[in-house]
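Predicting holo structure, 4'-deoxy-4'-aminopyridoxal-5'-phosphate bound.
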Amino acid sequence: MDQIFNFSAGPAVLPKEVLQQARDEMLDWHGSGMSVMEMSHRGKEFMSIAEKAESDFRELVGIPKNYKVLFLQGGASSQFSMVPMNLLRGKTKADYINTGQWSTKAIEEASRYCTINVAASSTNTNFTSVPTQDNWRLDSNAAYIHYTSNETIGGVEFHWIPEIDLNNTIPLVVDMSSDILSRPLDITRFGLIYAGAQKNLGPAGLTLVVVREDLLGKPLPGTPTLYDYQIHAQNDSMYNTPPTYAMYITGLVFAWLKNKGGLVTMEKINIAKANLLYGLLDNTDFYHCPVAKADRSRMNIPFTLRNPALDEEFLMQASNNGLIQLKGHRSVGGMRASMYNAMPIEGVAKLVAFMKEFACQHA
Ligand code: PMP
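Done. Tokens:
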């Protein structure tokens, strides 16, 4: 069988070189006689893995000293509650921008802890666009402003960072689960960013948080210890056992990204990949992408076939051609091609060639 290209939305494709290195190091990491899975998280071997992962990440993004990088568990979903628990800091309101299913979930969870002002929403376009900032109705008493930079299900992505408060008094918080490290990132524009690892970073089980130090230390009364960012920050993410193997693989992904030329190079490749697929979608009426052109995701591209009766046939033939996990999210149907950093451009080119051929066959 030819190479298989995996378009899963997450857990998703990882760089082949990373998996090969993990395979080579599986039984004996650097002559230690142990697999990384078997190491104490407090031993010198794992400590060196964790330190390198953090320093490579800091270097890749360019993270200043006044930001903490936390390696947590619980998925991005746990951040839906950790964010209000830690960032309300005595206030009772928060602003949220609603651009789809993930923002909606974040809003539902945060509303258990505070009053939510949905400052802008794209429900009017059925979540196929991002509300432009002139339509946002922010609350000056909000403790923070939360948005989702890439809606993994809807395929809607912010290609700009909101300009909200140049003095940084109201922190901007972003769920970057599905587009983190797909392009350069100016962390100083944010109070906090978070991401589940299993899309663009590494395996499921690790949740990455980057938070400005001055926001720490004022959790809601009753916040569970493990939900307090400060506890994790003070203990270098080792208050309890962190997800060691997931951190190791993610560290290999950071090293891979550095080796590939970093985030500027990644962005160029991601733009080229996205252009290939959108180029086809816009030049046929056999396929359709519902998302507004300016707000289309480079990471997750949802599309439908004009004739949904062909969906099963499309998926079957794609799979026979080594193009897998293209089925759309169960809530929206159709197809979705997720093209994270680890998806090579050859995979997208092969998908586009297959889609052209399929359209010709069924015209
Ligand atoms: N936010 C976004 C944008 C996501 O794509 C996902 C997962 N698909 C989540 C949050 C939830 O992540 P987790 O399953 O890690 O809790």
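The chain has a mean pLDDT of 97.
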